[in-house]
Amino acid sequence: MRNLLQVFVGFLLLASTALAERETLSMDFGWRFHLGDIEMPVPQSHHETYLSTKAGNALGPASPDWDDSDWRVLSVPHDWAVEGPFDPQANVSQGYRPRGIAWYRRSFQLSEEDIGKNIELQFDGIASHCTVWINGTLAHRNFSGYSSFQIDMTPFALYGEELNTVSIRVDASVMEGWWYEGAGIYRHTWLVKRDPVHIETDGVYANPIRKENGKWTIPVEVEVFNSGELDAEIEIATTVFDVTGRSVASGKTKAAPKALEQITGKYEIPVSKPKLWSVEEPNLYTVRTQLIRSGEVVDQVETQCGFRTIRFDAKEGFFLNDEPVKIKGICNHQDHAGLGVAIPDAMWAFRLGKLKEMGANAYRCTHAAPTKEFLEECDRIGMLVMDENRHFNSTPEYIRQLRGLVRRDRNHPSVILWSVFNEEPMQAERTGYEMVRRMAAEVKSLDSTRPVTAAMSDGFFSEINVSAAVDVMGFNYSQDKYDKFHALHPELPLISSEDTSAFEMRGEYETDTERNLISSYDTQAAYWGNTHRESWKMINERPFIAGGFVWTGFDYHGEPQPHVWPSIGSVFGCLDMCGFPKTGFYIRQSQWLEGEHVLEIAPHWNWQGREGEAIEVLGISNAEELELILNGKSLGRKTVDPYELVSWSVAYEPGELLAIAYCQGREVARKTVKTTGPASQIELSSDRASLSGDGVDTLPITVAALDDTGLFVPTANQRVEFSIEGPGKIIGLGNGDINSHEPEKGRRRSLYNGLAQVIVQTDPSSSGAITVTAYSNGLIAGKFSIPVEQVEQPARVAIPESSDVK
Ligand code: GAL
Questions:
Q1: Domain 198-305 falls in which CATH fold?
Q2: CA dist., res. 552 & res. 181, Å (int)
Q3: 62 SS3 class
Q4: pLDDT digits (tens, 9 = 90+) for 158-197
Q5: Is this structure's pTM higher than 0.85?
Q6: Contact yes or no for 386/497 (Cβ under 8 A)
Q7: Could you point out which of 140, 412, 424, 606 has its C-alpha 20 to 30 Å from the C-alpha of 667?
Q8: What class has domain 310-592?
């Protein structure tokens, strides 16, 4: 009888909690933060000890009762390391930024109507190790800042007046990499409320394939979990929508997950003549998967997919949709000036846009999993991705991390390669080979449609090495060994997983080792690397190499090379940390952009005091010939070598340097560089026309020094102060100078070679306009206004009324 009653009550609960759609609520707002560790209290008596070991009874800041009212209130993504000062005693690779330990706490309410639903907390990334308690119960330990994790808190969730409390101890003293990794909850956090019978997180695999007969199909796999008390009978149904939103195909199956059972529904959805996804035309289809119980939709998930084929050929390189595509890729870490690793979503569009503008068609996520918002943007704009795993380790915890990466990312058409490691000392040993073999098999068990690679840096010719366990050989540097390797392994496709590592500082044209300055004429590179000009030649002239990934697209915090302190960041980028182009950017444009005339001159023409001295002028162009004209006098027309480009030695005289590019004798482009007067005004600009008033939209604004006539002054280094009015705040500042120790937060920043960047973010539920004003002693202030549009607010977890957090 009692059982029957339970079943009946359970049925009522299920019936009353059926959700047409799951609720995915942002938890990003209203966290409390405590910098530094808090010692856990030691129980004083046997009784206290006994109690402290029980579920729900965690002590100290892990306990719901801990008084955190004086902790700082903030939103995530948050990186506490970038907020702090530089310290010469701190780790060089992490950019001399102390990291350490900190705590976060947040409370929230669940209504009584939520009883019976499945309640999951999701964390997209916390750097680096963390321990999570929910309502005083130890809920999770995470061992990588790059792997997302979820916690099903349904069993110990509290409803009604009682608050739920999440306490997180973050240990960022751990280093997973040799670059700046930031510290804290630096990616999004979510609370998901679902029907007890629901699709698991990342539980839809729907990646189209073209069958041997040329027909397209989507083999769908849907993982369903029933966290309810009753066995369920459901239908799993998927509809595919094309780019215009028209439903074009569907498929379904029936399933009966018992209480607390996980099942996988599988079916195929043929799709006839889909529009293909490509770099130029990234057509995306929407896949809507629903769970239907008694005719009612109880859960629904939308994923996107693209119809495209990929193939790596050992002789002819990479093919996308059967067309050869040379991979023009860049490697990147995930930080930005002023923000560290806490990157608002809008910044991905900004950064990827710059790389596209450079002509890049591929991105290698070094050396770890990116955010899902980043991959969505890559899908949207047609950027190919080499998705990389962080830890080279085939033991269970690390296999869990690797599987998490593949499960999360395997629907993205942009992802074309899984990389299991970067430059591992075991790469030329049996141990490394055995590990790759196992890791590759794990990847394939989840996705067999993309090849597995590993970025090797040595041991290419050892008797045993990991190249025997991969589908595509990843070659880091050692470009002089391509031919020998290919001759020995003519059947193994080869890609330059990393190359170049050239040194350049934006706007510097003289190397001064005393002052940690490096010229940007593309003449210097790490001893294991090459200049941009050398690297691309070696790749482009070999059809058997699928392409390459330049180290790096953007400069990044940490790993200062070749100089260390006071340098705090790298200078490998084609663009600096703010995304301002260096010479490398234009060189890559000249190598990579097809069907567009590229013409740029380095250096600037402000060499006051150096009259008569020889200045090297580099002409960067994909034209056949260039003519250089100084103050109306031709310095001659020269043939442009497509790799080496062309240069002149010019006796400096102020005025105007004009370059004219010719193809087949006809002028195709011209570019002038003029000597400027001193900086007299500041100009603020951006590439967007409006912002969304949602509390998350973010805009980098360019701050530039101009002279009286409006010419950009490439040598201005004044300090600038900023003020902001309207519904927004300044969240970061930068100028690309890796020798600067100015704070990246606040209201002040110097220009570096004429430029700085101020990054603003809108307030939630806002509209109107944001106005940023920049002042500097003696310069006419610059003003910039941008409209803020009212938009629907992202769904959020409210902060409890009883809390003093507003
Ligand atoms: C590579 C390494 C990168 C970076 C680079 C600097 O060997 O894979 O992470 O350290 O060198 O040149």
A1: Immunoglobulin-like (2.60.40)
A2: 16
A3: helix
A4: 999 999 999 999 999 999 999 999 999 999 999 999 999 9
A5: yes
A6: yes
A7: 606
A8: alpha beta
